[in-house]
Amino acid sequence: MNTSTESLDPALIDQLGKDVQCHELQPGRPPLFIEPKGGELLDRALFRAWTRRVKPVLEQLITRHGGIVLRGFPTPETDDFADLIEQFPPFEDGYVGGRAPRTQISGKVMEATRLEASAGLGVHSEMAYRRQYPKRIAFFSRRTAPQGGETTIADARSFAYDMAPELVAKITELGIRSALNYGPRSEAVEQSYADMDRHGWNHAFNTEDPAEVESLCAARGLEPLWHDDGSLTVFTTLDPFLCHPLTGRKLYRSGLHRAHTATEVLSTEIRKNHKYPTGMFLGKQARLDPSEVDHINAICDKATISWPWRDGDVMLLDNLQVWHGRNPYEGPRDVQVALLE
Length: 341
Fold this sequence. Notes:
Double-stranded beta-helix, alpha+beta, 20 strands
């Protein structure tokens, strides 16, 4: 079942005004590119006024297309990105207990990740390992890598319909158990990480107090398990499918199929051992067959695209409908993000 939207809606596009032009890389697939036409919106003040005027339209376009890219506008610096996203409500829960090693830059703006440059990041829905998650996520390419580093995206709107019905039924019945590992308390966030499990729990939870970590976990339905070396594993139970709050479409929201964890089992007797692999696992001691993992990954791969970033590009994604990732890169790169409601 193909659930992608039709191509451009002229009536909606017209509400953006005469000073912009829009196009898609693939008809009916995210993202929608919005670019200035003429010089009017190259003026920073006029651009900021325009974004405030058309913000309701931009929100509709994000939902309809799964995401938009604002390209060629006067957004060269973090302050410009911050001003743009200030118009959107923030994800109030922030990045408490987040997986990626990243630090706050200014206000809502954070680093994308400190995962080392040579590592790729598979497409995923932001914070799919949490019951609380941002409905939208914004990206800003302040400095584009000279080689690689593209932010990949995957149109996830049809995943639940493209998966074999018997597999959907199996995953739905069993549910998902998630494990996430953090390193012991550390002095600082390292410049880069080959293994994100080394990221210190004190930086992930923004506190030096283990008791506060436990309180934060309790408020979010998380189960912390401390280890003798000072590291931490956090467990939670998740629903693999949900309905989009605006479109009503059924969506797959899980990393169950990623890496080796899909065919492994996470013991429910969590205190018998001291080490658990980071990942998502089927409930009731079940596992996916390798063929089922390949089936889901093939669906994800088919839906994944990328294109070269340009300095100043801003992308706003519907976090449920469109997943994101990152290609490896060489040279300097500065991509920033913000989590939005």
